[in-house]
Amino acid sequence: MGRIVSAIVSGVVAFTCAAHPLSAQDRGVTIGMTNWAENIAVANLWKILLAERNYQVELKSVDRVLAFSGLARGDIDLGLETWLPKTDKDVMDRFGKSIEVHDSWYKGTRQGFVVPSYVGIDSIRELSERRAEFPAAGEEAAIVGIDPGSSLMQMAEKVLDTYDLDMKLVNSSETGMMSALARAYRNRTPIVVTLWSPHWAFAEYDLKYLQDTEDDFGGSDDIHFMSRAGFGEDHPEALRWLNAWDMSDDELGSLMLTIERAGDAEAGASKWLAENRPLVDGWFGGGEAAAP
């Protein structure tokens, strides 16, 4: 869930090595990648890491629901992001019986209404009182959102009702929302956006969440990775590596920001990896050698 990099190329990266006698088909892995900054970041990182270890990796761009349904059907091998136990409960209720959910790799997510720190309010109730100060997208009073089918936007609609907040929730995209935030921040004008942590925006800008006294945004989740049924039996070493994967807010934030500044997901992930190899080596048993 930044200004999404201008080019996200789904492809297959193949390496051959005599030390790995399995066929290319046996070592093929398809990762379902949603169009969110953190998902793009970690999908491209794992594409590189698995390819280094002689896997053929395809990144398949999918929307939120297809990320889950594709795993349930077995069309996708891995999905690297589900927020549990709250945010993704609806899709897990639909598809979870056919999906294997594995260890969490990021703990303590957050989502809600966010404003630049120079804006002089701290809560959603204050926003209700000063709504006229936040025009956006041609509306007199508006909150700039993301994709209308996302869990965050569904929660945001509930928040408008709970707080009797007479503001327009503008459907956009992560790209559109971040462009609006960048313009407002540059001009130091008030803006409210729907944002979440982890996100590179918090490393780039000085932002704050508006206090949600009614807890309609659902509190904190952990991010887990998922696989199709049987993936662990087919690729036990890959599953072991992924279960050892863990990232802090600073680590993931720096990965996303490096990608954002690079303007290319795979190039940015490669740059971050070169600068953080000791951290990543720990996921592979403290420095397991990659395939040449």
From TrEMBL:
Could you confirm whether the keyword rRNA-binding appears in this record? no
Q: Which residues are in the ABC-type glycine betaine transport system substrate-binding domain?
A: 29-275
Which superkingdom, per the lineage?
A: Bacteria
Q: Does the keyword Transport apply?
A: yes
| InterPro entries per UniProt | ABC_Gly_betaine_transp_sub-bd
Where is this gene product found? Cell membrane
Q: Which UniProt keywords apply?
A: Cell membrane, Membrane, Plasmid, Transport
Write the protein's name. Glycine betaine ABC transporter substrate-binding protein
